[in-house]
Amino acid sequence: MEFEEEEEFVESKPRYSETEKYRIFDKEFMPHIDSMYNFAFRLTNDEDDANDLVQDTYMKAFRFINSFQEGTNAKAWLFRILKNSFINDYRKKSKEPSKVDYQEVETVYNSTEDAEFESTSDLRIEAVQDMIGDEVAMALNGLPVDFRTVIILCDIEGFTYEEMAKILDIPIGTVRSRLHRARNLLKEKLRSYAKSMGYKELR
Amino acid sequence: MAECSSNVLMKEECENHEKCMKMIQAVLDGSASKEEIEHFKSNIDVCKPCFDGYQLEKSIKDCLQTKVEKKCCPQNTVDQLKAKIGIGLLLLGGFLIKLKVIQEIFLS
């Protein structure tokens, strides 16, 4: 699936004066910069790349500010730009393996869904509760980026499925399915950590 | 069949567990429909696999929300960005214009 870089920017007549542009940027966009940086960092796993991605996103947001309707969901709009910038720019430049094909990944996990549940159902709540943040973060970082993305958006940033569907440009049903599979994979990672910590499995 | 603390008999097996788990996750995520929420409320205490699944999903979600460090954007990045956009300059410009207008009002 290829994302068009400018897809989210619908060229429109300038609605905002220069002063309004700066006001909107300062009041509606800047308050989300920490969340944006955190998202960028979780996607890239690198502070410098996260910095570049955030700056690039905000520059684009300012450049195309007339496409933003004041009073609508600025955070979701910015996240969508950042996600597209990551896919279109960062991934092309990075040494990371070529991007994951959503359909391919989902087909794989569809076919192994039942087996997956069997292997993850033995994760104990106590083991999860005893884990430290770094262990959970490592498990999260170990997921393919497309699955990592849905978990970050939902569990860390608190977006609704509807917002995630807009950010990721996919139907809500796909958000649900992808999240479900992402969580099964995360449980598998957490189970491995739990096992290495010496927790006994349930079965 | 198992018995839960509230003396309600619980099913040991769930014939639609994958489907149920998607629904349970939607409930935890605050994105479930009214029907799903009703279904969840009326069934969660009678199905052990779903009850256990709910507890585990909830603990993982809590863990992600509270234990994973939320990185803050370095001030340097914020400053660089504002410099690029020229927002500081504009705010200063706006302030000076206001000041000038006020001065002119009082002087006239």
TrEMBL record, chain A:
Residues 135-184 form the RNA polymerase sigma factor 70 region 4 type domain. Coiled coil: none annotated. One of its GO terms (biological process) is DNA-templated transcription initiation. It comes from the Bacteria. InterPro entries: RNA_pol_sigma-70-like, RNA_pol_sigma-70_dom, RNA_pol_sigma70_r2, RNA_pol_sigma70_r4_t2, RNA_pol_sigma_r2, RNA_pol_sigma_r3/r4-like, WH-like_DNA-bd_sf. Keywords: Sigma factor, Transcription, Transcription regulation. One of its GO terms (molecular function) is DNA binding. The keyword Transcription regulation applies. Residues 32-95 form the RNA polymerase sigma-70 region domain. Belongs to the sigma-70 factor family. ECF subfamily. This is Sigma-70 family RNA polymerase sigma factor. It comes from Lacihabitans soyangensis.
